[in-house]
Amino acid sequence: MNFRKALLPLAVLAAMVAGSAQAQVNVMLPANPGGGWDSTGRQAFQAMNDAGIYTGAVNFTNKGGAGGTIGLAEFQGAYTGKPDALAVFGAITVGSIILNKSPIDLADFRPVARLTAEYLVIAVADSSPHQSLQDLVEAMKADPGATPIGGGSAGGVDHIALALLAQAADIPVSDLNYIPQASGAETVTGIVNGTLAAGISGISEFQQFAEQGRIRILGITSAERKEGLDVPTFKEAGYDIEIANWRGILGSPDMPEDNYQTWVDRFTQLNESEAWAKVLETQGWDQFFIAGEEFGSFIQEENERIGAILKEAGLAE
Amino acid sequence: METFSLLLQGFGIALQPINLFWAFLGSLLGTAIGVLPGIGPALTIALLLPVTISIAPTSAFIMFAGVLYGAMYGGSTTSILINTPGEAGSMMTALEGNKMARAGRGAAALATAAIGSFIAGTISTVLLTFSAPAIAELAFYFRPADYFALTVLAFTSVAVVMGTSRVRGFISLFLGLALGLVGIDQMTGQARLTFGIPALFDGIELTVVLVSLFAVGEILYVASRYRKDGSEMTPIRGQVWMSREDWKRSWKPWLRGTALGFPIGALPGGGSEIPTMLSYTLERKLTKHPEEFGKGAIEGVAGPEAANNAAAAGILIPLLTLGLPTSATAAVLLAAFQNYGLQPGPFLFTSNPDLVWGLIASLYVGNTVLLVLNLPLVGIWVRLLSIPAPQLYAGILVFATIGIWGVANSVVDLVVMVLVGIAGYVMRVYDFPIAPVLIGLILGPMAEQQLRTALAAGQGNPLVLVSTPLSVVFLVIAALFLLAPVLIRRLRANA
């Protein structure tokens, strides 16, 4: 009896191992469980399953670290040329590859689809004298050092967005006093207690504090105003910038052409499905879809734009 | 009043059957590990981290709270019955408790410990409930210079207070600070101390260090010192319950223990050892039966046992409100929060009210569950001590290794685990305290971040670090911690 009891977990384990070996699709999630990339990957396949687009088995691997570069490097090594291997990645990966001098090149992978985006907002304390984005930019121009601005890690999307804003206003990027903060919450406290003149972060991090009246949002980096948030875009304020923290799907390097087309089609169907619309709504993600080669040229452009900014900021050679 | 309705809402969450189940499980587990010498709440929670990642954070923290309180209850049982503290905070209990057990009053000792723990735990939880939201609001006024000064204070106090000498304390602290530097620097995006290993880019995982130091290091130590004879257990004999006299002699020490334990637990470097020692000394001074001390005085059990439970609640205050861990257990809880992508601090009260208030409410629930578990079932808990040590510790080692592998499937993590584990063993043998390593590892990056933010926002002017009244106060206290022993020695030499 005891012997049998001991065997049961082993049998379950064996079944699990066998199951994963049979899985048709391998998906690399280059982040730890629970984060945005992790949920993007898992929710996308769940929605595909619900919508009947792809109902087969999926084998997920989490491998976090350094903006996804560690997971993608492993993905490239293990799955080059394999037919049904996909990876989640995003805007942060582009900057991380340059900053960490990672050996991987996004152009080696097959661009499947860009799925979602979160736009960025810039905010000041409620008591701040700056009433508009122009006010803030003027202050930055007059004395960049005395206008410390907080946001996410160096070379991340927040930093890039601020650098683009500076460029558009003819402020040398290297003069900016950008102070990376450990989290969006710390950026908010820094703004509220006056350590930071302003802060930049994803909408979700700032919105509730703006609603509480602790901070005032001055601008958003989207092309058009966002519903439910009465804030002008950077473009309206006269700075021709559009940038988002986007997430997408890559195929393995040298994926066979047929499989590649199938996946581009499946994600296109997913994007139009009811199930995915529901996911976007519950997660609060913005749709930001393009697919196939069009996505490939977008990655290329982002790579050049971010590379140039990082050089100007003195973070990369 | 708002606190009250939030607390009620918290009870709504804590009393859901599934969460009651987790609280019960945590309490069971906590009592069990409290009873077993050498395994503390910090290690248990660290081992549970990889396992709990798939359950909801609220449930996980409710379970952790059970473990935390349970360990304090369980620790006293071992102290009283086998004269080996199951838990660092139960050290003083062993002095009088075991004597009582030998004199046939074991049941009374166990009862005063359990009831004292319950009363202290409940009073402290009430204090926590009503002071935490106010302290959380403070965080909006804390500037980087204040945080930096606070971390400096935490560093000096932990290094000075814990361990057998200050040199050892500071060496441990700097080891932790060095480990905390590994990884990509957030401010510049450059890699530090990674030796070209990509797996180190995100730094050394706190869980890995914790498990290595507590499980691997401690088990190597126990194994290297293992003798087959073991300690002798004193069976429970005599009257089952506390007498009228016992009650009369216990209630004041319970309250005094609580008054000592809660605030000291909330201080950096306070932990649960210091308040129990203070409580014991205090009871010894105040007692009307000085002749009984050293031979089994009930006050010497009641006071310290209340103090250690109160301290366990105290450590939650700086942790929940400011994100500041003050002991090894708090450090693990912080790691648990971060595992779920949650940052303890003032925002936790606004962004995750369900979690915070559910957790606080579950402390009340856990306390009651523990009283029920501990009073009548003491005989069963004691049997745990008959598990042979080799099997027990080997099992923990295997569980720890699987757990670390499970977190990230990383070979590098396992290598780090072996190296840090051996370092932990060496530290244990030569009496280097472990808590400063953890505090250094956790608070080091925070101190650096706040220092650099303060300097950058002040455009490089170092005076910004003493620009607020709070920062000056904290730095002065930190300096006193460092200098006071030297000054006192001087004064004495001169006198």
Automatic annotation (TrEMBL), chain A:
<dbReference type="InterPro" id="IPR042100">
    <property type="entry name" value="Bug_dom1"/>
</dbReference>
<keyword id="KW-0732">Signal</keyword>
<protein>
    <submittedName>
        <fullName>Tripartite tricarboxylate transporter substrate binding protein</fullName>
    </submittedName>
</protein>
<comment type="similarity">
    <text>Belongs to the UPF0065 (bug) family.</text>
</comment>
<feature type="signal peptide">
    <location>
        <begin position="1"/>
        <end position="23"/>
    </location>
</feature>
<dbReference type="Pfam" id="PF03401">
    <property type="entry name" value="TctC"/>
</dbReference>
<dbReference type="InterPro" id="IPR005064">
    <property type="entry name" value="BUG"/>
</dbReference>
Automatic annotation (TrEMBL), chain B:
<feature type="transmembrane region" description="Helical">
    <location>
        <begin position="108"/>
        <end position="135"/>
    </location>
</feature>
<feature type="transmembrane region" description="Helical">
    <location>
        <begin position="45"/>
        <end position="71"/>
    </location>
</feature>
<keyword id="KW-0812">Transmembrane</keyword>
<keyword id="KW-0472">Membrane</keyword>
<keyword id="KW-1133">Transmembrane helix</keyword>
<dbReference type="InterPro" id="IPR002823">
    <property type="entry name" value="DUF112_TM"/>
</dbReference>
<protein>
    <submittedName>
        <fullName>Tripartite tricarboxylate transporter permease</fullName>
    </submittedName>
</protein>
<feature type="transmembrane region" description="Helical">
    <location>
        <begin position="147"/>
        <end position="163"/>
    </location>
</feature>
<feature type="transmembrane region" description="Helical">
    <location>
        <begin position="392"/>
        <end position="408"/>
    </location>
</feature>
<feature type="transmembrane region" description="Helical">
    <location>
        <begin position="200"/>
        <end position="223"/>
    </location>
</feature>
<feature type="transmembrane region" description="Helical">
    <location>
        <begin position="315"/>
        <end position="337"/>
    </location>
</feature>
<dbReference type="Pfam" id="PF01970">
    <property type="entry name" value="TctA"/>
</dbReference>
<feature type="transmembrane region" description="Helical">
    <location>
        <begin position="357"/>
        <end position="380"/>
    </location>
</feature>
<feature type="transmembrane region" description="Helical">
    <location>
        <begin position="463"/>
        <end position="488"/>
    </location>
</feature>
<feature type="domain" description="DUF112">
    <location>
        <begin position="20"/>
        <end position="438"/>
    </location>
</feature>
<feature type="transmembrane region" description="Helical">
    <location>
        <begin position="170"/>
        <end position="188"/>
    </location>
</feature>
